[in-house]
Amino acid sequence: MNIVIAIIIFSIIILFHELGHFLLAKFNGIKVNEFCLGLGPTLVGFRRGETKYSIKLLPFGGACMMEGEDGDSNDARAFNSKSVWARISVVAAGPVFNFIMAWVFALIVIGSVGYDRPVLTGVMEGFPADEAGLQAGDEIISLNGYRTHFYREVSQYSLFHPGETVELVYERDGERHKATLVPKMDEESGRKLIGLNGTLARKKGTVAGTIANSFFEVRYWICNTVESLRMLVTGKVGMDDMSGPVGIVKMMGDTYENEQSAGGTLIAILSMVNFSIFLSANLGIMNLLPIPALDGGRLVFLVIEAIRRKKISPEKEGMVHFVGLMALMALMVFVMFNDIRNIL
Questions:
Q1: N or C: the chain end with fewer CB closer than 10 Å?
Q2: Confidence (pTM)
Q3: Is 18 a catalytic residue?
Q4: Distance from first CA to last CA of the chain, Å, rounded?
């Protein structure tokens, strides 16, 4: 049952992404031939007006298939017959809808259980934070100019910027102070630390605070995704550390099962919603990457067209997207194999 819940959540996130493309296509008068959830052969489907709505065999993925999107069409309502700005809005709508969905999920979680304030519970004796005079109750305002709103962001910064000198701003009794912290090696953990201690315990705030912190929650997961990609590109993490749909569904299923055993069904559901913030924000960022066949790759061609005021050859663009699609399929097979190997 837990795996089924995970697949449903994953499918809803993808469906909302495609809904963004669908709604903006309709708004711009573009003909949508098919709107589907999943990949592969059609299991069930029906036609309403000009559009076929269907569910495919494989529950991962989805599509909003527009007239003339990947080929020539003489239809006046074809995708390529519309202005470049209309096409940009349609392509960008998918990732934008993912960020909107992530914010809604964040609103549910923070409204239910609150957020973790970036307030110290103490410092590690003998480490830079202790030597700089920081103490329990101090609120971390920023790290090297990065504004913090949660204690998780303090931990996140240390994870993605190990060993870096930190220009820290903190607040005590309504006054702000600055400190320069040079990380010190901790023999026990084998890592360079600045010696901050905090808690991830959440507290509820005002309605206005909940709305604002929901945006910061989405920002947190966007930064998490971007920094993870940076570590992948720079070789700080390997391809074996990547996880695809199979691994994510397995992870979500395990999380639901563990949280249900420890805290009950409501806590398990909230943990799934919290996981969904990450998934939706992650999908939005990944689709904005300038990779052929993804939304980001299509946006690159459209932006070039807007600058040149001249369309790029559909044949050349189609070939680039085809090569990109084949590369993505190969990567998907590798990641899926890696997921299955890790599960077994």
A1: C
A2: 0.85
A3: yes
A4: 20
